[in-house]
């Protein structure tokens, strides 16, 4: 995490529109090259390792099941109000999480290599045919295709805070 809190609703970020897990893999390769070259910049509150792990977890949970579920009134409200909105629009930066939730879904002690490896592993699981069909902790049941769109939009948002700079 950076030393000072950054308001991510106002932070500079790249606009991405990743359309497939294959495109996600290409973007991850680009970011890894920039990291190796020393040109990768962070414009949000998290570095690459925690971001990658944060993106890997919902893919893992969509295949294996979430370790926790939101209380049913929150799930009903999220499914009725938020899910239709996120299906239509890109994810918006600046969403604030509680400390406990943030610590669970943005683990801080994750190296770039470990986070990247975890995300690459989860992408590979889906590309090899494993289906994302487990209920979302807030949105409940979602078909595989909705999970794909959800995870790609999620990646668009968070990877936008990683600026690869120029690599040679």
Describe this structure in words.
54% of the residues lie in helices and 2% in strands. It is an all-alpha fold and 168 residues long. It has one domain (21-92, 102-163). A two-stranded antiparallel sheet has the order 1-2. The relative contact order is 0.26. The model has no long low-confidence stretch (mean pLDDT 87).
Lay out the secondary structure:
Layout: H1 21-37, E1 41-42, H2 48-64, H3 72-88, H4 99-105, H5 112-127, H6 144-159, E2 162-163
Antiparallel strand pairs: 1-2
- Structural domain count: 1
Strand residue content: under 5%
Distance between the termini: 27 Å
Strand order of the largest sheet: 1-2
Name a few traits of the molecule:
single chain, mainly alpha, globular, 2 strands, 54% helix, 168 residues
Question: Could you give a quick summary of the protein structure above?
Answer:
The protein is mostly helical and 168 residues long. The protein has helices spanning 21-37, 48-64, 72-88, 99-105, 112-127, 144-159; strands at 41-42, 162-163. The chain has one domain.
């Amino acid at each position: 995490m950076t030393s000072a809190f950054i308001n991510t609703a106002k932070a500079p970020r790249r606009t991405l529109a990743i359309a497939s897990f294959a495109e996600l893999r290409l973007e991850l390769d680009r970011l890894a090259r920039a990291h190796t070259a020393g040109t990768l910049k962070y414009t949000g509150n998290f570095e690459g390792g925690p971001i990658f792990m944060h993106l890997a977890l919902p893919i893992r949970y969509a295949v294996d099941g979430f370790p926790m579920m939101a209380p049913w009134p929150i799930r009903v409200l999220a499914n009725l109000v938020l899910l239709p909105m996120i299906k239509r629009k890109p994810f918006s930066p600046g969403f604030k999480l509680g400390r406990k939730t943030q610590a669970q879904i943005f683990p801080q002690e994750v190296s770039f290599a470990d986070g990247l490896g975890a995300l690459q592993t989860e992408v590979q699981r889906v590309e090899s045919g494993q289906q994302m069909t487990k209920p979302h902790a807030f949105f409940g049941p979602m078909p595989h295709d909705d999970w794909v769109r959800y995870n790609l939009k999620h990646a668009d948002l968070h990877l936008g805070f990683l600026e690869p700079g120029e690599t040679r």
